[in-house]
Specification:
Elements (H helix, E strand, L loop, with lengths): L1 H13 L4 H7 L4 H4 L1 H24 L1 H20 L4 H29 L5 H29 L3 H5 L1 H15 L14 H24 L4 H24 L7 H4 L2 H31 L4 H7 L1 H21 L1 H19 L9 H26 L7 H30 L3 H25 L17
């Protein structure tokens, strides 16, 4: 299952370095070919909550096998694509497969290990995701240079088959008993259309501008549907997409909100650090992929270490450490200037890697384990939805600040990362006060004996 996570995470980052070659092969432009990435990310982010709910309702193994079959088959078709439209369509369907796989994997991993090893479960899965993110640009660059970008997709097939075979023969979990198999179509529609509207608006705001009627209209649709989602779920009762007991869970909500604010820095670093290396330092795409390894490799290693530490030091200390590092890192990046070299980024990347690697597994584990066992896949899907939403919102705001500050390029980087530091500070406060239990718990007055 960790291998399946590597495939999903690798797919986010490996394609980026191959986009210029795809653009040339299909004789198209960057605005069109960018949807090879956007179509997958958008579908994945929008449907992951639905995927988690379906996994809890109909069985996590079933959801995993179905999702992996969709992901692998569409990867094969994507590798054989003859037009950009064909490729974008397969990427959209790959997003559906990934949205079924990810929450099912989380649910099964937490079910396999005993409760006292919950931190290890979160560390394994988030560590595998970090590994996939780290090796993605390298795999994408090597395959594109030595063979073809098509092999990025073809490689997914044997790894997916391996993951399915191992899971089929070795992973046997007690599936949650859920007699109510009614699907909340109204809730799915409201959440999906609302998220699509939000993410498309934020994705296009750099081209259209915040004052464009299309952006305003999409944001209005998103706001209306998100507000309407709450009464829709109340009306749906027990078969709601997001049951009432999950929505009212304070610990779970705190984890989601902290991840929401932290993800602005995470996403901005993935976008702007390689751009700084390419535009300011003159690196090639492959060199920039290697250059960001101090961040991504540290993220992967620390995620695996965070699992055992979760049980030893507790969720609160680990979450605060991670959140503090994520808050400090963008401040360090904001200190660069026109004369800064690669060495000026290394400390910030390592600090950010420590922060992401310790915070995300901890916050995910604390959130997922705070809900009933029958809802862990749904909880995992919601947590990841907040990560994508927070990253998209933060990236939209960062890009606006960045664009307003340039030229020169470095001034935009400085201004954008200052904003990310401020947003991360909010997440740090939430982590201090609520993750791993309230910092100041209410205590009842002692009663005197009579």
């Amino acid at each position: 299952m960790g291998m399946a996570v590597v495939v999903i995470a690798n797919d986010f980052s490996a394609i980026n370095v191959a986009l210029p070659t795809m653009e040339s092969d299909f004789h198209t432009n960057i605005n069109t070919i960018q949807w090879v990435v956007n179509a997958y990310a958008l579908t994945f982010g929008v449907l992951i909550v639905t995927g988690g709910r379906l996994a809890d309702m109909f069985g996590r193994r079933n959801a995993f096998f179905l999702g992996t079959a969709i992901f692998a088959s569409m990867s094969a078709l994507g590798g054989a694509a003859q037009t950009e439209t064909w490729l974008i369509a397969t990427r959209t369907l790959m997003g559906i497969g990934g949205a079924l796989m990810w929450p099912a994997i989380l649910g099964m991993t937490f079910a396999i290990l005993p409760e006292e090893k919950a931190g290890l479960a979160g560390g394994i899965i988030l560590g595998a995701a970090g590994l996939g993110n780290a090796i993605g640009p390298l795999i994408g660059g090597v395959l594109t240079d030595l063979a073809s970008w098509r092999w990025i997709f073809f490689l997914n097939v044997p790894i997916s088959i391996f993951a399915v075979a191992v899971t089929y023969f070795l992973v046997h979990v007690e599936e949650p008993e859920n007699a109510d198999h009614r699907i909340d179509y109204a809730g799915i529609a409201a959440l999906s259309v609302g998220l699509v509207s939000l993410l498309v608006a934020l994705d296009q705001v750099d081209d259209w501008g915040w004052g464009d009627p299309k952006v305003i209209g999409l944001l209005a649709v998103a706001a209306i549907l998100m507000v309407a989602f709450v009464p829709i779920e109340r009306r749906a009762g027990k078969h709601a997409l997001v049951p009432r007991e999950v929505m009212r869970n304070e610990s779970f909500t705190a984890s989601c909100l902290a991840i929401l604010f932290m993800s602005a820095t995470f996403f901005a670093a993935l976008l702007y650090l390689p751009q700084f290396m390419e535009k300011q330092l003159g690196y090639s795409p492959l060199e920039a992929g290697i250059g960001i390894l101090p961040f991504l490799a540290t993220f992967a290693v620390v995620s695996f270490i965070a699992g055992p530490l979760y049980e030893r030091v507790g969720a609160k200390k680990l979450a605060i450490l991670g959140a503090a590092c994520i808050t400090v890192a963008p401040f360090l990046f904001s200190l660069v200037d026109g004369g800064s070299g690669y060495d000026s980024l290394i400390v910030g990347m390592v600090v950010l890697g420590i922060g992401v690697g310790s915070f995300y597994p901890t916050a995910t584990t604390a959130g997922v384990t705070s809900v009933d066992k029958s809802q862990t896949s749904l909880a995992g899907g919601i947590v990841y939805m907040f990560q994508i939403a927070g990253g998209s919102i933060g990236l939209g705001l960062t890009t606006t600040i960045f664009s307003a500050a340039i030229p020169p390029f470095v001034d935009g980087v400085r201004a954008g990362f200052r904003l990310d530091a401020a947003l991360s500070l909010v997440g740090l406060v939430i982590a201090v006060l609520f993750i791993g239990g309230r910092l100041f718990s209410r205590s009842r007055p002692a009663q005197t004996a009579t």
